[in-house]
Each structure stands twice: as structure tokens, then as C-alpha cells.
Amino acid sequence: MYQHRDIKGSTLDLPVNKVVCVGRNYVGHIKEMNNPVIQEPLLFLKPNTALCPLNKPLDIPKKWGRVDHELEIAVLIGSTLSNASPGQVKNAVVGFAVALDLTLRDMQQECKEKGWPWAKAKGFDNSCPISHFIPAAQCPDWDKIRFSLSVNGELRQKGKSAQMMTPIAQLISYASRFFTLQKGDVVLTGTPQGVASLQEGDRLELTLEDYRVNTVVI
Prior knowledge:
The chain is of the alpha+beta class.
């Protein structure tokens, strides 16, 4: 069972709840996917069963076609937020992590073409591998967070929070208009360009500031 942990490995006293995600929050990714720019954040949800530890092997599904990695900054909510201001968000966030929004791309495309919801392409079990959390106090400037993903020693994705179309505090404030964010919820903040597929045997290194985590695809 997934448990929220800090970078020292200590279990955090938080329940494991939903994951609120945002799409199209980096211009580079919008362009590489040939998607139009939208004026408001594109929100979707993953269930808590999507969460799994990133420092363990990733057992990706092999029967549903292409599995893409989408590198994201993850934000851990420590107290309830509803219709919250950015200032209230600042006081409620307790940690940051690096995560992957794993996506069944063939299935998502089929759902889009048929006009169906694409929850199963984004919210399947273990579709949100996530690292241990860095305490929020260690990331005082939310507009200068750096993160990256290398696969088999080759840099695939690299970004910084300053590139977001909707910054972190405003994004979480916006999400709290529609979903009450509760203690233990995780918010994913969008992916930069460089999205690609994963293959069995791939070795991944992910960074968030100076924190590094490694895993392998099985």
C-alpha cells in the first residue's frame, strides 16, 4: 500500500486521497501534442489507487498499447482547501515531490476520437508513481523549482516551475473551486515537453532540485 513519506523515509501523518491533475500547463508540451492553447487549466482526477512509490520497479501494463511518461511536480496538501486564495494555498501545502503521470496513449486517443471520457487511460492502477516528499519549507520559491527525467542516461524531460502557464499557487486555488482539496490529496501540475513511451528494461533517473530517485521499468 502506498504511504506518503518524506525524503528521510519517515511516514507522514496524512491519509492517501485523490490526485488532482492538470493538462496543458506548459507551452512546449502543448505544441508537441498539437493541442490548442486553452484559457483555463484542464483538470482531471486519478484515484488514490493510482499512487505508487517511484523508488520501486514500475510494472507498466503491457496489454493496452503505448505507455507514455509525463514528468510532473507533485504537491502534497496538508489541510482542507475550498475556494481558497493563493495565500491560503501557500499555508496548506506541506511538501513537493517528482511524479510521473503515466498515460495509455493509444487508449486515450481512441477515447478522444469516440468522444468518451479518458479516465481509464490516465487513472489505471499505479499510473502515478511518486517520489518521497521534500518539505515545503525547503522550496520557498515556488516559481524556481527545477525537475528532470533521464531514461537510460539520456535526458528526456527538463523543466522549471517558472515555465508553467498557471503557477502552482494559482493552479491549486483554481482547482479548489471545483474539488475540495483534503489532507493527503496530491496535485500534479503539468508536464514539460519531451513526453515519450516507456519500454521494459528502461532505467529512469528523476530529479527535483537536488533530490534524485532511480527506478526501472519491468
